[in-house]
Amino acid sequence: MEDVLRPIAVLGGSVVITLVLVWLADRALRRVDAAHPETPLWGLLRRCRIPLQVALCAALLRGAYDETGLKTVENHEAGIGQTLSLVLIAATAWLAIRAAAAIVESSYSRYAASARDVARVRRVRTQVTLIQRVVTAVVTVVAAASMLLTFPEMRTVGTSMLASAGLLGIVAGIAAQSTLGNLFAGLQIAFGDMVRIGDTVVVDGEWGTVEEITLTFLTVRTWDERRITMPVSYFTGKPFENWSRGGAQMTGTVFFHLDHSAPVEKMRQHLLEVLQECADWDGRSWSLVVTDTTPTTILVRALVTARDADAIWSVRCEVRERMLEWLRTEHAYALPRISTAPAELDGPPDAGRTRD
Fold first, then answer.
1. Least buried of 21, 45, 58, 130, by fewest C-beta within 10 Å?
2. What is the pTM of this model?
3. What sign results for the dihedral spanned by CA atoms 178, 180, 181, 183?
4. Residues with Cβ < 8 Å from 274, sequence gap 6 or more?
């Protein structure tokens, strides 16, 4: 009878203790979260239930599996202990990554809720995202190394490799020069505030919005929904336009090639009427002036402002369309024309005459 009850008590007890402890922890987090709704951390930590259950159950079984008295366990004691150790390390790493993600997300949510500067919010979002990726990478590497060191053979290999670690480091550094360069470039972007998630940029002639930043690459979503993936080292080694730098407000221009008889003053008055009816115009500034002239046309520039890059595009398009429509219907003579004259069929008056 004891041979039957002992395994059940060890295995079942470990599972029951795990479920009870995790349930109590989850209930406590739920109460704290309800009492402090302004802090999302407690609710986010509830995502750690599954890795906590696996880690706790593996730890209990690792310490009590040899008390089951089963012959199968006794015959494979080393293998079972090794397996439980690997599961415990993996579950602990999983739990650490989940907890770190909850802390980072909670910190960003609280900052974004209280901050009014959109640019600073995007900067913090970029930084916390990269910090979370670094923590995940470090925890994964440490967990993998710990799992390898549980094998006696790997300990011997590791001791012998320490002697050649310097040479291997040099070789690895040369081989991974590009990868390491992108890694440090990603950290420089995160904390140097060069470019942030949500910034409007122009790279290689493409206009778009920064959608994702990792330790090695950066993704730009263009206006036509394409994604351009570039190494982060590009943004530290080459010039690019960042339209969100120093504030999202922008100034745009619309050019008109018109005839010399164009009514510039009436155009100026009509431009103001168009802007007052345009929802995307922010009212900061506007102007209309003649900036250049040629023997056949004049160049008229309309200057407008808007709150961001998307709005300035809409304002420019609306001004261009409505001004051209107004000129076509009210002042068609102001549109550029090509002047032509009939060719002379006859030659000069003295053509065909010969000197005496």
1. 21
2. 0.49
3. positive
4. 318, 319, 322, 323
